[in-house]
Design brief:
The chain is built from 24 helices and no strands. The protein is mostly helical. The radius of gyration is 24 Å and the shape is globular.
């Protein structure tokens, strides 16, 4: 653990003094350096909003589409199973559960190194490459003839998909002020809720193709759609703020960099890779609580995505075909609650309270599901479960994305966060065995427990982050959002005295990241 002075500031980092010079800590990457006067870099609210809209249009719509396709391609096996996959492939025993689980084994392995690769290769190259890879695997899933083929393709699907979600979330976290981040992450994650809705409608149509194996066309068509959407990514996907951008002028890029400097301070510094940044993430105990919280939210999410069609089918409220359609409405509600919670969270720069409230709604949903009530009431409880868990995922992601830095510390923290969290897929894939139909008491009870654990983790993190902020305020008063930490003046003696960092180089000060005395944690 970090040896701190009680404020979360790493004393070892502060006490160690080396000479690194005054590096450009927001390097321009491949963007040509253009000198602007202070007046040219000054930006009013109208101009800030105009650039923000340009950033939004450059990132959010396409990223949301990519995640919709990613989530759809990973969970469409649930729709295919309702459409006849298991008998067609002769699956026996737990082979279907193994096929679900094996995806997440590969998925979690690649998440930390994939974030490093994203930074090294640049997003506009890395993301289309992995998308093309998983689209080919998805199409191949449509031609498998037995359990071995299904399990193998699911493994490689997880391996190829693993880099998308953590990578794009990290990229989003570098482009937005903390007070604007959660709405964008919410809209991005809304792709998953739309995937739940769109997947049911698409599966309903594809299963009616008169070939005797309509479930195969779920994989064929959805894999082909992903392939087509991946190609333009090379030209559409935006790289990190310091890189050359086509959608911003040089002056706009410099102005937006100034906005990010003022709003994120040292945590968004684009330092070169060092193992020190990696260790800084692993030594923080809060990272493991964030990760457990995410796992506890993700387990109900994946369970619902994978098994909602089967749960509805076992309620016998409709025929097999209509079951695909009935899985759509809960996810429409989930989309609405995701956006609404994101707006509220950004307005008050608070993540914990919305998570606690939303997961409490999910808790009520699982309490109803686990009891012996009429089928219609159980169907209603699915709305509650989805409506609460969907916004909680986005809230958790923007929470951790706002509280770590510099860049490779954040990349490592978010990689571990997603890796641990998405291992929930290994659990959720095995808690709804067909033998427990139609009540699935064990599966609902496990998700009820995870939901309660997520609430506890959110409370612990809120209390600790507020404690650290109060401790730092007592020594070095700062704005609640930490925006008065001026990274451009990190090496200035007056700035060092202000924060009690005398004797440290500019590089060392920026390496402090979220341990800087002027940083304030989002709670």
């Amino acid at each position: 653990m970090l040896a701190t002075d009680g404020t979360g500031v790493d004393k070892a980092l502060v006490d160690r003094v080396h000479t690194h010079g005054t590096d450009d800590l927001y390097p321009d990457g491949d963007r040509e350096k253009v000198a602007f006067t202070e007046e040219e870099l000054t930006i009013d609210e109208a101009q800030k909003k105009r650039i923000l809209r340009k950033v939004d249009w450059a990132l959010v719509p396409y990223f949301s589409l990519l995640y919709l396709l990613s989530f759809l391609d990973r969970v469409n096996i649930g729709q295919a199973n309702v459409a006849g996959l298991t008998p067609a492939l002769g699956l026996k025993g737990n082979e279907y559960a193994v096929a679900l689980s094996i995806f997440f084994v590969a998925y979690v392995i690649v998440e930390i190194p994939s974030n490093w690769l994203l930074k090294a290769m640049k997003p506009h190259r890395f993301v289309p490459l992995i998308m093309i890879a998983w689209s080919i695997v998805m199409i191949l899933m449509g031609v498998v003839q037995n359990a071995a083929g299904l399990i193998a393709t699911r493994f490689f699907l997880g391996f190829a998909e693993g880099g998308l979600y953590p990578g794009l979330n990290m990229l989003l976290s570098t482009w937005y002020p903390r007070s604007k981040l959660n709405l964008r992450v919410g809209l991005f994650f809304a792709g998953a809720t739309l995937a739940g809705a769109f997947g049911g409608i698409l599966a309903y149509g594809l299963r009616h193709i008169q070939t005797g194996a309509g479930w195969r066309f779920i994989f064929f068509i959805e894999g082909a759609i992903t392939f087509v959407c991946a190609i333009p990514g090379y030209w559409i996907i935006v790289d990190f703020p310091g890189d050359k951008q086509k959608f911003l002028t040089e002056q706009e890029a410099a102005q937006w960099t100034r906005v990010l400097q003022q709003s994120q301070g040292v945590t968004n510094a684009q330092l070169p890779f060092t193992w020190k940044q990696v260790r800084q993430a692993f030594k923080d105990w809060k990272l493991y609580v964030y990760s457990i919280m995410y796992l506890s939210i993700a387990n109900p999410l994946y369970s619902l995505a994978l098994f909602t069609p089967q749960i509805i089918a076992d309620l016998h409220v409709a025929g097999a075909a209509a079951t695909n359609l009935l899985s759509t409405p809960p996810y429409v509600l989930g989309f609405i609650t995701t956006v609404a919670a994101a707006v509220v969270s950004d307005r008050y720069l608070c993540r914990s309270v919305p998570i606690i409230c939303c997961m409490s709604v999910t808790l009520i949903g699982y309490i109803i599901l686990i009891t012996d009530v009429p089928a219609g009431v159980k169907y209603f409880s699915l709305f509650l479960a989805v409506a609460g868990v969907s916004p909680s995922i986005a809230l958790a992601i923007s929470w951790i994305g706002s509280n770590y830095g510099p860049i490779y510390t954040r990349a490592t923290a978010m990689g571990l966060f997603f890796s641990m969290g998405n291992s929930a897929g290994l659990i959720s894939s095995n808690v709804y065995p067909k033998t427990e139909s139609p009540r699935y008491i064990k599966g609902h009870a496990i998700n009820l427990g995870f939901t309660a654990l997520a609430i506890v983790c959110a409370i612990v993190l809120a209390v600790e982050n507020k404690r650290l902020n109060r401790k730092r305020d007592a020594i070095h008063p700062a704005k609640p959002d930490g925006s008065d930490v001026d990274i451009r003046k990190a090496g200035n003696e007056e700035e060092k005295v202000k924060w009690g960092l005398q004797g440290m180089s500019q590089r060392e000060i920026v390496e402090l990241g979220d341990h800087h005395p002027g940083f304030r944690y989002v709670w």
